[in-house]
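Retro notes (design track)

What went well: tokenization of the new backbones is finally stable.
What didn't: we kept losing track of which sequence belonged to which structure.
Fix going forward: every design gets posted as structure first, then sequence, in one message. First example under the new rule, 264 residues:
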């Protein structure tokens, strides 16, 4: 399994598949690139797909640092540079979308087309209260309760109805998935602090914002705001799918994104 040694000595797990224009698929708060599932193989038919586990998650170094969205974006930028890409397409989901905003603003020469999936420009009261509650559950009740409670916001009700056994299996392994709760808490603090609203007019990359209408983590109005603030941005709204809609409507997600990325 390939790892990149970052400037400070931490290691970032990554994988590269397919051929064609480079496309970074970047997951959300959980940080584990396995989030993308079958979407990786589907998109690798057209693109050189690069996925990575965020530092502090998955198979990357579990660094005990003060996390920030800027730091997460810089880790990814080091990977872009190490792989020799001058410019990449970027699809960031949730936290990955916040990272994409940072790169498109601060390193516009590196981002070709930008897909912002179920993400936000600036925290509001709803977002802050949601993640305060999730943090409190993790601190006071532990990883299993954290995953059980989080699922109620991340997934649409019909998906939960049909995947009870899958959720129970994940919850039973929670202490293996969340080895160091303090890292998750620091990463939550990092995303709550994210605020690029006043700088989004600097984005020059063509941008597509995608979300599901029933998303209870990053509601529709966050996507509508991104489209208002980013020049040349447009939206694609799925009727349902929840916050993790790419795992529910993968074929539609891939179709819409591929069409956007291949536009002349």
């Amino acid at each position: 399994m390939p790892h990149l040694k970052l400037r400070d000595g931490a290691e970032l797990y990554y994988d590269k598949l397919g051929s064609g224009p480079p496309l970074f698929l970047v997951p959300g708060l959980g940080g584990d690139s396995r989030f993308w599932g079958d979407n990786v193989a589907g998109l690798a038919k057209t693109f050189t797909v690069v996925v990575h586990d965020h530092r502090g998650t998955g198979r990357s170094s579990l660094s005990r640092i003060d996390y920030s969205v800027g730091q997460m974006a810089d880790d990814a930028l080091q990977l872009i540079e190490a792989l020799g890409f001058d410019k990449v397409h970027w699809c960031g989901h949730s936290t990955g979308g916040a990272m994409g905003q940072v790169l498109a603003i601060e390193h516009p020469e590196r981002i070709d087309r930008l897909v912002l999936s179920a993400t936000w420009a600036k925290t509001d009261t709803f977002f802050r209260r949601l993640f305060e509650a999730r943090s409190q559950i993790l601190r006071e009740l532990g990883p299993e309760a954290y995953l059980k409670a989080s699922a109620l916001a991340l997934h649409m009700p019909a998906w939960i109805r049909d995947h009870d056994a899958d959720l129970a299996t994940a919850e039973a392994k929670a202490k293996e998935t969340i080895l160091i709760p303090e890292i998750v808490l620091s990463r939550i603090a990092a995303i709550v602090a994210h605020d690029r609203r006043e700088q989004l007019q600097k984005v020059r990359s063509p941008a597509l914002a995608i979300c599901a209408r029933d998303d209870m983590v990053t509601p529709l109005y966050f996507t509508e705001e991104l489209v208002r603030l980013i020049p040349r941005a447009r939206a694609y709204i799925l009727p349902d799918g929840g916050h993790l809609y790419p795992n529910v409507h993968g074929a539609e997600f891939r179709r819409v994104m591929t069409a956007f990325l291949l536009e002349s």
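Added context from the reviewer: Strands lie at 3-5, 11-17, 22-26, 48-52, 88-93, 111-117, 207-212, 234-238.
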